[in-house]
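Exercise (ungraded).
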Amino acid sequence: MLVVLVLVQAVTFLLLVTLFGLTGANAPTIVVNHDQGPFSQAFVSSLANDHHSFSLTFMGNETVARELVSRGDYVAAIVIPQGFSQSIQQGRTVPITVYVDNINTDMTSDIQRAVPSAILSFGERLDVEGLNVGVSETDLYAHDTSFIDYMIASALVLNTLIIAGTLSAFSVAEEFESRTARVLAVSPVHPLVPLMGRVLATTLVSVGALAVAVFLSLVGYGIYPVYPLEMVLTLLLCVLIFGCIGAALGAVMKRTLPVAMFILGIALPLFLFSGSYEPERFDGNLIWGAAHLSPEYYAVGLMEHAVFGLKVTPEPLAVLAFALVGFGTGALALAGFYSRRGFH
Amino acid sequence: MSENVNDEPVQFKTVSCKVSGKDILKGITLSVKRGEIMGILGRNGAGKTTLLSLVSGLRTHASGEVTVLGERMPPRRTEFRRRMGFVLQEDALYQELTVAENLSFSASLYGVTNPQERIRTVLEVLGLFDRRDQVVATLSGGLKRRTAIARAFLHDPELFIVDEPTLGVDADARHAVWAYLRLLRSKQRTVIIATNYLDEALALCDRVAVLEGGRLLAVEEPSELVKRAGICIDIECDEETANRIASSVTSMKQVARVELTLSGISLFLVKGADPEEVVPGFGRYGNIQGFRLRAPDLLEVFKSFGDTT
């Protein structure tokens, strides 16, 4: 068991590093080119080839592009106006409109840096003197959210997984180590009932620990939630669901030390591809699709909304909450199944 | 539903069981009668605990049929577990809780009515009342065992399953546990105990099922088991004298078996043989420092079944 766990740890940390490298690059960006002249084509080419910050999608309809950015499918939409080529030729100032999902300042800054850089590169390539291209930025949200603040909100979710998951996994695995699980297994009550009693007890401890973390984020970081009640409810839901997941892992693994190691081992990689420091859909469809397997993805979506009013997943909040409940229900079923099996 | 469940609460019909692909029980057929103490006797690894696990439902048999209190195992309903009490090989108590708290938790699991009154009664019977507020972790092995037994008896089950009732307990605790199990029998409760102590089987059991290597060797009264192995005479003497005695008894029909030991020689007599007919005259073979009569031990019982290990 320990050998397998060490291997799992080795793989998860490799996964962690890989995910760290894969995320945060090639932001999905729309280009709406109203001008079909040679200069606009050259500018698009400059955006595509000189800067790996973008993963470009081309569209003809500016309204649709703006909606897609608003919906959170894309980081930004760059609109090249009609007459762009002609204006360049005549040396007139050309405004390029950029709609940005300023969900956190990290991503916004990337766009703000990348577009002027592309313009500069475009100018060098054309060898045009006195190139006058201006950027007009339109933000999706009225206020900016700093990168650290964004991460603090998602870190609360990570905290919850580690605290509630580890505590409940530990308490359930302890029943197996001390052999009391056998006494429960031969009793007329399904073992899940008393095991959930233990999980609820650990939930109270987790809530206490999280209260300290929330207090620190309020006082230490000055983060005041936009929807305080929603944040409290989200955290309580997360404690319960992650507690159930911990209980399932405890019942499956049946040993305290390995299960604690396992939760710590998987928590960080899961966290990294759950939209913890930027919306996960910005990291490409493959990673975004895989992120749906992680309960942290749904929890981070709910938390970022509760704390900052941000919508970091395309799924509605209700779907996120139901998905979390689904994870919890599945975990309970697993815990119930394994609480009467695997005795040696 | 078995037709004679009232007479035989536990029935095994050609039951086999595998654990991790290994055959642990092979074709066991066994019935336990109501109101008896049935001993499952066997050495370590014989399959005793596995057999009890099939009764408790912790394991599932590979073939054959197991019926417990009229319920075909594995059980579809768990309600019948209220009629059973288990003392597992490990005490499996909540170490951080007191004796009374452990019992109180069990009472809630089994839906015991008037739990506090019942806990008091059981603690008094087992001599644990004065320890009721003591944390289990601070109890001796014997007291923990008694607490585990008290917990299993709390809901007054009709079938009581005890795996190694006196494993690792001192003599006082051992006798207290025995007295309690006899009390259960007097109340017409059915008890199955797994043990590897022959004296425990002799002291407690009405019948004994002897298991070896997953097979059932015999089911008989403990006294019959002892007779089968024969009364043993241990003679303390030097090696030369022991060899002479061994040669001399080969023609004696009262002697079933001879074993040379470190301290001399052991003679196992056939059923009904009188030791006084065998012993006189041994003095002529050499210097005999002493001798004693005793019942055979478990290993000797197994040897009487033809085991040569």
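Further reading is listed at the end of the chapter. For now, observe: Chain B touches chain A at residues 53, 56-59, 78-82, 84, 86, 88, 90, 92-95, 105-106, 109-111, 151 (CB under 8 Å). Chain B has two domains: 10-220, 230-304.
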